[in-house]
């Protein structure tokens, strides 16, 4: 028997110490502190619930899973006098997703206006246990500040994910609707745990296939899985669907047949999925069809679809990511120019979805001028979780600080304090609809996100959408504790790396506001020398504009004057080359190489310094990571350790490629103490060329 | 303590009863029969080994894993008097991969000429334990009948797999060489356990990227992982690489610069990977570049590459899958016409890789006439494990009986008994090189193959390549026992379904030798009405040739006369419409709808009967499967149960589409007792059309 127990123990320890990352932040390994564990166990000994529906089932199931895992006890369901009471009741806060947690000496009560509120409350309780917080004298009242908190999956019908770095699509279309992969359920659990309540299943570059009857049956199966977790399903639609699927001659939004086709389609969708969320549309953008193909406008297109969806309370989420083919223009200004003019003319079930920055998810962008500009039209925040421009799945970039920077940026739309967060959560303009979305970084990879640390970005989206004023540091703290359940030193070490990671990545890839200098089309590695592409605004030169004088895109009134799209308060932060925060310098100014920054260095010297210090910081990340060896599970440790090696290799590549290339223009030496890159331009160019080989 | 043990037990039972399929046939769950377990445990109590290298490490590690899992004991490594002795020694059989297993009352001795032989012997021992066989008085001597036993991965550089239905490529190119995914090791273990000793990492439609210095470094990392398991790495190459990568003006195989480029490339490859296997080439086939682009021949191309590889003992595996654009011709005859003429003119390090049938991996094909035709050139068997035409990952098709049918087919090349197996294993023509390959069905899916039952096809390839005369039933028996470790009744039930599955699939999709009637291009579902495609031989009509008279492709002397490519003995089995086995009828004859088969039914009635009986057989599969509920782990049970539902839905689709379409030509009624399909042609056509929507 002793041997047997020893054997069992060895399995347990295997379970504990080799972690493939599948369980995400809902890890639920046994809490090591016995006293704490016992205290919690007492609190969760018995549970009662005053309602029964699909959501109550999954709520109790989650509670049981957490309790068994974290505490080693099976919660007992009782009729009364439970130590944990779950109940639906009318709260002071009428938000349908609100919850309260109150605790007395012998009882914790979690209540919600709806079963969904209770589910969120239970996840909050579990989080507090996972993060070793006290459950004494709780008086929590919480409700989401943003209504729609959503993931956008850029998943194609062939199973690939556009800009996905974590495997294939999780949706197994050829198995649906008959087979429900267990991953669908765990996906829903993870989302519910962070308050995500919507998911767009397919790519915004949308195949019309998804709204055929055949595929709607499959979508329904997913909606049925997600519903108990409070998650609504959305689809991206192809604007030309009436032609592609309906055989109509046109997709003109003003054509009666087209309107009718969409009405019928909406009816069909809602007959199958009564709580379907809505359609997301990328129209007249990067080759996608749209109303402008028929001489109509974005407004015409969006309103036509909104009319079709209105009887069902369905939403139209219309993306503002548009930019015309204009070699002389400034892509920065395109979305504002196209959408500002229609403010107030969109039907009430339309949300305009705006990427955080004016270009395309660069590692640092100033905010899109549309935030603060659309007073009568709800705008949604679109963040990108998948690291298209942030090092794919081999660079460790915690995006929390980036999101926080964006949300805290003051638009000055109604004077100082008009932050983006307040635009997005509807406070500023009293938007009736509010939304924040993340372009998902999930895929079929066992650990969901490829880089184990990228799970934090998914987690962050949910937490920030619930409360856009939460700090990225607080989120990192929660996530690390939940994910690693490690000791204090390791927790602090990991958090520290996370908090620095985005600035480090910026330094070795895009210092001082350099942007859009990645490998053309595939977006891998550095390629600042791209001067030709199918469109000028797909080159790097278009953005960095390096010449013998200097570098950067002049967006002041002497240049493209896109700065004018901001309210004065924000504009004035950027308009003066001498006072602008150096991180944004080259977004707005063509700065002479020898221009002196406030720290006394020239632009060139500062750029080079950042490239080199960025690389050194990665070495520091490696050292810090090495210091926690043995403190977290070995599989994750080795996984991250290996990825940091790749990150270091690629950081060197970025540094050398950038320095060698820009030096052609600056003609200035690499400042001491740094050594000039040993590699030639040709060697560095050949590295990215490999990835252009079809 | 008791509670704790109970809890631990609950974890164990979870481990045992929910199986995600990752462990494949190396499941190693505890053997339930205690007496048996103890007997085995005694035999494996102590182990000694007389050599130490990378292979010995993995051999001992596997032994430990198996012993701990199956028997619950940790084998103890001792210096002498071990119960299990592993040793390198010179065997009677000089084959470098041979092994012997001999057992006396107190000792089992596994010996090999090389450490690889010992590894194979250990896997044989484990298999015998997994299948509950006696280890008493063993006198086993085994060596592979085929030298190169290989998987071909059709994996692209973007991570997709051409015709893959189990997720993405397992090779994480952007993480390599720094990060070694644990799956690489488990892949190697699985292959070694069934004797697979080669792997082609990338698609035959080859990107030149794989032979850049950058990618060769990544390939080396994989080769290093696989080497201890006796697996050599191969790459598919793009024939135009000297132009694409080398910047040469031509890829003409007779051009001195081109020759030199390939010599240099071969040197570069072997400097990194001294035991690199060789290059696989798909040339002048389906748009791939090749020597004929420069007015040269397959012989010229293959020999040029073979010269470059010869100094390193590298192989060139040249695929015979070619067919010219000839609307009047018969694609059936293309490979023979192109390659037979060069027999004897290929350099000795060349293997011609031939698909089992003359067309393209249809569910039943007569053998390629090249088997038995190439007397002086080694030909390799290419089977397809991925179920491109066999129902993807939702239809359960055990391919063993198909492979067996092919291998047992008599070519009559040297009179009766000249089976394909004897061609392939080199007996018949004394080939100095022998090879059998399977186009892999593996991917990043957790269970490797999508359909849990498709793992059996991978297993079969290895076992049949080791011994092409083993029966598919014996293999099924091994695989089911190893994979499910269930009771006798369940084992027999699963085997029975497996053994019938391919004929069932044939019946509801391609009865009587119908072929190539699947969805155009995507190859999903039925689309026998395809009459137009980029090439006539990509239509369905080209193959079934249905008209008001009859159906089938006349390949007798009255038709294309492709039958003449077979030796007389085989030809005469197919040439007479009255004596041909009905399963091959429409491969060789345009049979009148009213032609009577030997069972008295007309061709039409027999076709319809098979479509309907095929569907009913799926229902029977479902019933049989349902009968083992609770006898195998629930996750696999439910997974297969759901896939069988999809299979049934699609079987009905195939049946109805085929019957409704062909009835347009036959104008004959659906024979009783079968009911005419309720769906219209338009309804059925729209189903496949969905999958043509981009």
TrEMBL record, chains A, B:
Pfam families: Glyco_hydro_67C, Glyco_hydro_67M, Glyco_hydro_67N. One of its GO terms (molecular function) is alpha-glucuronidase activity. Keywords: Carbohydrate metabolism, Glycosidase, Hydrolase, Polysaccharide degradation, Xylan degradation. SUPFAM superfamilies: (Trans)glycosidases, beta-N-acetylhexosaminidase-like domain. It catalyses: Hydrolysis of (1->2)-alpha-D-(4-O-methyl)glucuronosyl links in the main chain of hardwood xylans. It is an enzyme of class 3 (hydrolase). The active site is at residues 286, 360, 388. Residues 129-448 form the Glycosyl hydrolase family 67 catalytic domain. Homodimer. This is Xylan alpha-1,2-glucuronidase. It comes from Lacihabitans soyangensis. The lineage of its organism: Bacteria, Pseudomonadati, Bacteroidota, Cytophagia, Cytophagales.
């Amino acid at each position: 028997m002793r041997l047997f127990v020893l054997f069992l123990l060895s399995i347990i320890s295997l379970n504990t110490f080799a972690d493939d990352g599948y369980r995400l932040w809902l890890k639920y390994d046994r809490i090591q502190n016995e006293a704490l564990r016992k205290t919690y166990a007492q609190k969760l000994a018995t549970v009662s619930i005053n309602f029964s529906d699909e959501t109550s089932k999954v709520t109790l199931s989650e509670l049981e899973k957490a309790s068994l895992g974290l505490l080693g006890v099976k919660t007992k369901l009782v009729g009364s006098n439970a130590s944990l009471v779950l109940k639906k009741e009318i709260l002071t806060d009428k938000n349908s997703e609100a919850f309260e947690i109150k605790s007395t000496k012998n009882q914790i009560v979690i209540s919600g206006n709806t079963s969904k509120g209770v589910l969120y409350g239970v996840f909050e309780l579990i989080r507090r246990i996972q993060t070793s917080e006290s459950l004494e004298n709780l008086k929590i009242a919480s409700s989401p500040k943003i209504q729609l908190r959503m993931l956008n999956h850029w998943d194609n019908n062939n199973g690939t994910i556009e800009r996905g770095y974590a495997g294939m699509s999780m949706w197994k279309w050829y198995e649906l609707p008959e087979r429900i992969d267990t991953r669908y359920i765990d996906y829903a659990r993870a989302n519910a745990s962070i308050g995500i309540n919507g998911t767009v299943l397919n790519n915004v570059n949308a195949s019309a296939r998804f709204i055929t009857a055949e595929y709607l049956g499959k979508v329904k199966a997913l909606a049925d899985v997600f519903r108990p977790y409070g998650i609504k399903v959305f689809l991206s639609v192809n604007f030309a669907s009436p032609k592609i699927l309906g055989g109509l001659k046109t997709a003109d939004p003003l054509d009666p047949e087209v309107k009718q086709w969409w009405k019928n389609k909406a009816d069909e969708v809602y007959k199958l999925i009564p709580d379907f969320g809505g359609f997301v549309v990328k129209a007249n953008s990067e080759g996608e069809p749209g109303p402008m193909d028929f001489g109509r406008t974005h407004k015409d297109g969006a309103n036509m679809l909104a009319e079709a969806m209105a009887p069902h309370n369905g939403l139209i989420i219309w993306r503002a990511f548009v930019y015309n083919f204009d070699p002389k223009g400034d892509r920065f200004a395109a979305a504002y120019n196209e959408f500002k003019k229609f403010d107030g003319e969109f039907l009430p079930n339309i949300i305009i979805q705006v990427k955080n920055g004016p270009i395309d998810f660069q590692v640092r962008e100033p905010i899109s001028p549309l935030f603060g500009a659309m007073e009568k039209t709800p705008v949604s925040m679109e963040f990108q979780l998948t690291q298209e421009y942030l090092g794919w799945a081999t660079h460790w970039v915690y995006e929390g600080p980036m999101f926080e920077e964006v949300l805290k940026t003051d638009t000055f739309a109604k004077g100082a304090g008009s932050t983006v967060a307040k635009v997005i959560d509807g406070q500023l303009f009293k938007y009736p609809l509010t939304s924040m979305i993340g372009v998902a970084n999930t895929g079929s990879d066992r650990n969901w996100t490829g880089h184990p640390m990228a799970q934090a970005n998914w987690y962050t989206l949910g937490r920030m959408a619930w409360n856009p004023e939460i700090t990225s540091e607080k989120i990192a703290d929660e996530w690390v504790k939940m994910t690693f359940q490690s000791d204090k030193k390791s927790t602090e070490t990991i958090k520290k790396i996370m908090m620095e990671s985005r600035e480090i990545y910026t330094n070795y890839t895009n210092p001082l506001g350099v942007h859009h200098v990645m490998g053309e089309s595939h977006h891998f590695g550095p390629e600042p020398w791209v001067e030709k592409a199918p469109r000028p605004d797909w080159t790097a030169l278009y953005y960095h504009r390096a010449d013998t004088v200097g570098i950067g895109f002049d967006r002041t009134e002497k240049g493209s004057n896109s700065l004018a799209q901001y309210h004065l308060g924000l504009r004035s932060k950027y308009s003066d080359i001498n006072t602008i925060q150096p991180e944004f310098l080259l977004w707005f100014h063509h700065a002479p190489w020898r221009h002196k920054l406030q720290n006394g260095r020239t632009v060139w010297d500062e750029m080079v310094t950042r490239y080199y210090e960025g690389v050194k910081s990665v070495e520091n990340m490696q050292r810090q990571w090495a210091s926690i060896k043995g403190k977290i599970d070995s599989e994750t440790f080795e996984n991250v350790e290996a990825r940091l090696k790749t990150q270091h290799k690629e950081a060197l590549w970025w540094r050398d490629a950038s320095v060698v290339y820009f030096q052609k223009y600056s003609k200035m030496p690499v400042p001491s103490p740094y050594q000039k890159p040993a590699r030639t331009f040709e060697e560095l160019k050949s590295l990215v060329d490999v990835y252009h080989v079809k």
